[in-house]
Structures are given as structure tokens and as C-alpha cells.
Design brief:
single chain, 110 residues, mainly alpha, 65% helix, globular
Length: 110
């Protein structure tokens, strides 16, 4: 996959369809429920939507849910980018902004 192809998700609005079987494996009802909860948790971060703030919020969320960061990060990455390979999830969230990120999370949540 070329660099341009791997970054095209930044320019498209709305949900990102999983691009491969590995990404599709993260689209489960359990992960959908977790992403819906995460979307709600991130509402409080909209005023300070920075990579650092988002990383802290997602780490707190994972801990509160009894999950490892990777259990949150991979479904989140797939919801945001459609792939298991992308730039850092906190960078993606910061660039997409709260409205677009939330829209993608809610669609992925089902």
C-alpha cells in the first residue's frame, strides 16, 4: 500500500469501511458497544481536543473499563481509518476533530 493510499481516510468524511480481513475482525458487537461508550467519554474532551489530552482520556477510559490500551486502540483505529495500520490514533483523532471523529465512532458502534 502506498503512503497516499494509506492516508486517504483523512480526506473522506464519514465512516471508513474496513479495508482488509484483519480490520474487519475488529468489527464486532462487543467492540461496537465499547466504541459507543468511548464516544460518550470523549465528549468531555471536545474543548481541549489535543493529542496529549486524547491520549490521557483514552488511557483513563481503558483503565476504567478494565481493558488494555490495545483492546481500545485497534477497534478505534479501524473505526477512524478503516485499517489496522495507520498513523497514531491520538494524531488521527486530533486531525479529524471532535465532530468527524465522533461521527465515525458512532457509525462503527452500529
Amino acid at each position: 500500500m502506498e503512503v497516499v493510499d494509506s492516508l486517504v481516510f483523512y480526506t473522506r468524511s464519514g465512516p471508513q469501511a474496513p479495508v482488509d480481513d484483519k480490520a474487519r475482525s475488529h468489527v464486532t458487537p462487543e467492540n461496537g458497544a465499547m466504541l459507543a461508550k468511548l464516544s460518550t467519554a470523549l465528549d468531555a474532551e471536545a474543548a481541549n481536543w489535543s493529542e496529549k489530552q486524547l491520549e490521557e482520556a483514552i488511557r483513563r477510559f481503558a483503565e476504567a473499563e478494565g481493558l488494555k490500551l490495545g483492546q481500545v486502540a485497534q477497534p478505534l483505529r479501524v473505526a477512524l481509518s478503516g485499517s489496522t495500520v495507520s498513523p497514531g490514533i491520538f494524531e488521527i483523532l486530533a486531525i479529524l476533530g471532535p465532530a468527524e471523529a465522533k461521527a465515525r465512532l458512532l457509525v462503527a458502534a452500529g
